[in-house]
Amino acid sequence: MKITTSRLRSFVPELGYDARELRVLFDEAGIEVESIEPLESDDLLIDVELLANRGDHRGYAGIAAEVSAAMGRRFVLPPVNGTLVPGPRSGFEDEAVLVFAEARLDLIGEALPLTPEPDMPTLTGIPILDSAAEIGVLWGHPLQVYDADVIQGALSVRRSRDGDTITLVAGEPEVDLPAGLLVVVDSNKIVSVAGVVVDACALAGEHSRSFIVESALFDPVEVRRAASALGLSTPSSQRLERGGDADAVEPTLLRLIERVQPWAALSGSGRLVVPHSRPPVTVYAEADGCGRLLGADVLDSDFAARLSLLGFNRVSDGWVVPEARRWDVVEAEDLYEEYARIVGYDVLPASLPDAGVGSEPTLIERGRRAASEVLHAFGFFEVVMPGFYSRTSVDRLGLPSKHPLQSHVETIGSHDKTHGLLKNNSVVTALDALQHNQKFGSASVALYETASMFRVAGPDAVDESRVLWAIGAGDFQPRTWSRSAIEFDVHTMVGLVREIGRSVERSFKIETIDPEDTRHPYLHPYRAGSVSLDGRTIGFVGEIHPAVVRSFGLHEGTRPIMLELDETALIPGIRGEHALFPSEPVRRMLDLVVRDEEPAQALLDSLLTAAPSWMRFARVVDVFKPRGIGNSEKSVTFEFEFEPKAGRRVQEFNDVVERMLDAAVQILGRDRVRRR
Amino acid sequence: MDRAVSRADLDEIAGRFLSKNSVIRAATRELKSLSAEERSSLGRPLMEAEKRISTEIAARRAEIDDQELRERLVQERVDVTLPGAGPTLGGRHPLTVVEELAVEALRCFGFTRVEGPEVETAFHNFDALNIPEHHPARALQDTFWLTNGLLLRSHTTTVQARILEAGPQYPVKVVSAGRVYRNEAVDSTHTAMFNQLEGFWLEEGITLANLKGILSHLTAELFGDRRIRFKPKYYPYTEPSIGLDLACTNCDGAGCAACRGVGWVTIIGAGMIHPQILKRFGVPDGVTGLAFGWGTTRMAAQWAGLDRVKDLYDPSQRLLRQMRGLS
Question: Which residues of A46-84 are buried (b: 16+ CB within 10 A; e: fewer)?
Fold first, then answer.
């Protein structure tokens, strides 16, 4: 809202002229200043940001009340001449109608058009409408102006019914009104949605000779409900949906009558109906309670005096009746806030509470940090990406139509087409990030993120889980002046997964994914593995399917490698008893010949079934294709480390290795494994 | 010996004078045929000659070794000013950096970090936080509603609702940080997703003075010794509601284009937890609560030296490296 200091000064004559001091004054009053622009003749245009709960700030009078209080003065509204005649409640039975006033005005001379002002830059050019708007802005209460010649019979208020319509914009088709909204009607039709908007056909226009001006107060919830239903936010609805001022209904209408009297005259006496007064609010507030909340010494006399500046007067010991405009004051804490505001938050004391001992990071925080340190050591950078994408983005994965990942949690009415679906997988995000980097000349990326994934879990339920994903493509270690580049491959990422596992004291197991498995159609069927922890699948690691790479328009030859881990798997395990082996171990090697497709993990698992407790480690140390084996075979060399012990003979170690080999042969079969 | 310049030369000399077939060894063998007196008079000079030659060869060998080592070291010269060839480190995102700074500062008061879901119910996002349906404050937040009636949380205060709903043991000291969403069109200054951090503390006798004390401490930890001020604000879930302004880092409060002449930048919104929320969740009488929060997006952008907050969500690795101070 924009206000000028010249107009505000007509309410608060003591108002200063210095822009900087005015800004501080407004800040202390709780009215945020967006900007101050100089105008002519020492005038200033102040753009203020209004508090959402203070409808009474939406007018000069309301702002004047706050500014006056901040200056230590109580603002009193100037009196207005005349009164309206009380009218019957008939036609206003609905409980949402609190006050309804109307008056008929007839043109008696040439209407005086208003000149646009900096605080009211846009005018309709129709004097009665612009005058009503100006009065509304000055006194903080909206007025509606109808063409009296269009109105048939007396105005009343009812609820809209099925089939009711309204013309929102002149010349455009009528729109259906939802049933149940509060509407103002004449004997024939709806003339306005109460407190929101006047029907364009009933609105006073440039050819209107007589007007009916409405000044009313409706239940704020009903006003907001109607405005929401119509998708409208008008100056009237903005004011009344925050709770209007019952005491301003009649005076504001009288001020308009006074304002236009040179060219429009009151016909009759107007009428004022008060069918359902808002129940009076009484608040018990005491200085001690205020002091306890603020942590300050609050004297009773000071408490009462400062509140009275804002119009809060005690009616009896501790009991306060707020003014009708203060819908926001309903309980003691509301008044404690008013007191604190008028004292000044900078003036009130500050103290540190007794905090006791500090706290430690939670388990998931520790796990997340440990994993990120490994990722950083591998050269990965963290990104933060939006939580949604578009259907077009997902389609690039080429998922079958019935694939579970086709099902998304969807947003309604997003302003941006890329915000239509909540992400249910990390692959689209990761490949988008890669594509973005390639577009701007970076072929090599190493990025990771911890993000939420959202999956439909029922008609009104969402399964939300957090995952750690990482993508590497191009150079894992770039070419330098001294050596060639090392490219990302699946084994780099597998190494990363294993190191992350070690960092959180977890032993992640990686197993080959069945090429026929349809859960991860975006992965290369022969270069991907599932990651599990204690028998539970916690993610995947692997190369992105070449078809998906092509679909994302990535550079020819790009081989992105991804991992995704359920974040709960990063909760650190309990550090077990790690045996130390100070003595030199006894080592044995075993060279096995297996088919190319045989996973090393399966071989290792079968060998370990016969391993003694005194074996320290077993590891793959070489994979190669020696002469003398089949074309589709490979040689896998294992190294075993055993704990030496006095009295343990050399033959004993050799026998163990033989037993492990026998176990592997027995488990896998002679056709799958043999000694080289 | 003086002409010997290599180990080979020395080996040749050693062969001639010290080997089994050398003239000295041959003469020594001849001594057997002589009398004891002659062996004594002739044998000692031969031994001394052999010892002297051996010593001279060793000394010369040391000289040659030393010379060769010096030459090798010269040949092994490397340019240590060339770039290192080890693996390069990655890094945390600026948002994570500032979140961790803030959380770390709050841990000394005993705050524990709690995560909350991003998909929320209207109850936890609005109703439980004193924002009923048709409340004007709902208009402040262009909510991302979902087709299933749920929504994307518009603030991290939802965590407060969930914690209180669970009926916690008091005192409660929680900090929560994460993504929040607003249904806005994206441009250079607006993003539909941004990050917030929120803290709340409920305990018997907690006061607004305590809130001011904590916020003063927190801003000193995060921003250093800068001037601050408190001013009235409105939030539906706190009462009183206050804002904390920090003197503009560009002009130190004098007023400049960066702060639109204000001299101050509001960085934290805070207040005492609204009595309606305490009542709704059955918080015991006497227990009051303070709460505070701010958008970490803008703070992270400042930390990273970015003019546009949108760039924080850009996955360009080149930019991420630069934000970490790497070339």
Answer: bebebbbbbbbbbbbbbbbbbbbbbbeeebeeeeeeeeb
Q: Under an 8 A CB cutoff, do B147 and A410 touch?
A: yes
Q: What is the C-alpha to C-alpha distance for residues A520 and B125, in angstroms, rounded to an integer?
A: 35
Question: A621 near A637, Cβ under 8 Å?
Answer: yes
- Please tell me the distance in Å from B172's CA to the nearest CA on chain A: 11
Residue B140 pLDDT grade (very low, low, confident, very high; cuts 50, 70, 90): low
Q: Taking the mean position of all CA atoms in its chain, how far away is CA B68?
A: 48
What residues contact residue B198 under an 8 Å CB cut-off, 6+ apart? B155, B156, B157, B159, B160, B175, B176, B177, B291, B292, B293
Query: Helix, strand, or coil here: A281?
Result: coil
Mean pLDDT of A362-389: 96
A residues 319-348 closer than 8 Å to B (CB): 331-334, 336-337, 340-341, 345-346, 348
Q: Is A598:A672 a contact under the CB 8 Å cutoff? A: yes
Residue corresponding to tokens 């103002």: A184
Report the residue of chain B nearest A339, measured CA to CA: B240
Confidence of residue A583 (pLDDT cuts 50, 70, 90): confident
CA-based nearest distance A101→chain B, Å = 25
Count of other CB atoms within 10 angstroms of residue B83: 8
A27 shares contact with chain B (CB less than 8 Å):
yes
DSSP class of A262: T
* ipTM of this complex prediction, to 2 decimal places: 0.87
Q: What would the two tokens of residue B248 be?
A: 């503009």
Is B239 touching A (CB cutoff 8 A)?
Answer: yes
User: H/E element holding A283?
Assistant: strand A283-284
| Minimal-distance CA residue of chain B relative to A477 | B87
Q: Which helix (H) or strand (E) holds A616?
A: strand A615-624
